[in-house]
Amino acid sequence: MSEPNPAIRPAIQVTGLVKLYRRTAPGDQLRTLKSALVERSLTKNLKREEAIVALDGVDFTVAPGEAFGVVGGNGSGKSTLLKLVAGMLKPSAGRIEVAGRVAAMIELGAGFHPEISGRENVFINGAVLGLSRREIQRRYDDIVQFSGLADFMEEPVKNYSSGMYVRLGFAVAVHTDPDVLLVDEVLAVGDEAFAHRCLRRIEEFLATGRTLLFVSHSLDLVEGLCDRVLWLEGGRQRLVGEPRRVIDAYRQEVAELEGEAHRAAKERREERAERRQAQEGTTPEATDATLRWGSGEAEIAELRLLGPDGAERYHLNSGEDAVFELKVRAAQPLADFVFGIALSTPRGHEVWGTNTDLEGYVPTRFEGEATVRITCPALRLAPGEYKVDVAVHSREGAPYDYRKQALTFTVTARTGGVGVYFPDHRWEFGGGIEWGSTG
After folding, report:
1. Tell me: the pLDDT tens digits for 300-354?
2. Is 287 helix (H, G, I), strand (E, B) or coil?
3. pLDDT tens string 425-437
4. CB half-sphere exposure, 224, CA atoms < 13 A
């Protein structure tokens, strides 16, 4: 979707939005209810230097029928933004205008009374969202069916699991016919089947011309669902625009920060190793057996991803040359050894894998320290995050050293597509087809 048409009244208009929270220093006394009532706000006359700035100068417009995503790290202000749009919080400065009825799925169990039944909470929540008792009664069976909680509607909500909270809250929200639906990360609490049901309902909701404001750490989900995306960082607006462009920029920055953290951690490990070597009788640090296992006859000491310039990388552009470099060692001579590599998505979908045995290499001798490089000219992966497993094992498969998720890297691309592979390709057209400039 392109930028909203200014001639159409926005579903959501946010202008110069600022939200400050009072900072409580050690020894400060809590402000009294009386002072809050007299001043009408706990943040009135609050100075920036005395406050935690949750949001600062945020501006965007969401058109009717648009799915608008919000991404950013923890503490970037995403949930605060949704609470402000929902009217749960008041801005310290700026203006928020929302057209029509709003339903929000923001906090787990928000609006539920724990001591009363699910059925009673449906009627209370429906009333809060603007429905009459007769309207709620008419939709009650649909709400229960969607939630899948028919056997638990007479139970007190305090006995519900976190997933059951989400089921009931979302079922109520989407059956109140809101004009604007606000959804935070709470959908991640539900099970896979219910999450798919929610997404189908959201797509039906958007197809009727209504509006979604969606916050999630699942970048693939945001990219697939949303028409435009806002990137928040430290409460400030970094970028707003087409999902691929914004998410690729966000992924690249996250990858660079992770690379810096990885290099710093590597330096600390090397310093600890040097100190251990200087001390007699020390033993290596324990390894998480769920991510690394094997007999130890051979060891993968290090895995690095190198870019076209030969420098260590944690981010690639689709189609760039890439090298996976392993530093390996064997304390005793080995005549039976295989080196392997596998790439997968964070959800565990296999992308590519191979090993030296599959490719016809016949082992002869491996002793001491060595380097193994897997060079991939033009690694054409689709945008997203990828995990790398590496291993050295016998030809029968007995692991000497298997390192699961030894490396994570991200890929971005200038063009769109779906799947995990971006092959070289071109479009050709004949006859009466014309295209305009993309610039």
Report:
1. 999 999 999 999 988 999 999 999 999 999 989 999 999 999 999 988 889 999 9
2. coil
3. 777 778 888 887 6
4. 12
- The radius of gyration computed from the CA coordinates of the chain, to the nearest angstrom, equals 27
pLDDT digits (tens, 9 = 90+) for 56-99: 999 999 999 999 999 998 889 998 999 999 888 999 999 999 99
HSE on the CB side for 262, CA within 13 Å? 18
Give 327's contacts (C-beta < 8 A, 6+ positions apart): 300, 301, 302, 303, 369, 370, 371
Domains parsed from the chain with CATH numbers: 12-248 (3.40.50.300), 251-275+294-412 (2.70.50.60)
Q: With contact defined as beta carbons under 8 Å apart, do 94 and 101 qualify?
A: no
Full DSSP string of 200-261: HHHHHHHHTT-EEEEE-S-HHHHHHH-SEEEEEETTEEEEEE-HHHHHHHHHHHHHHHHHHH
Q: Which residues contact 284 (CB under 8 A, 6 or more apart)?
A: 276
* Site of tokens 């787990």: 108
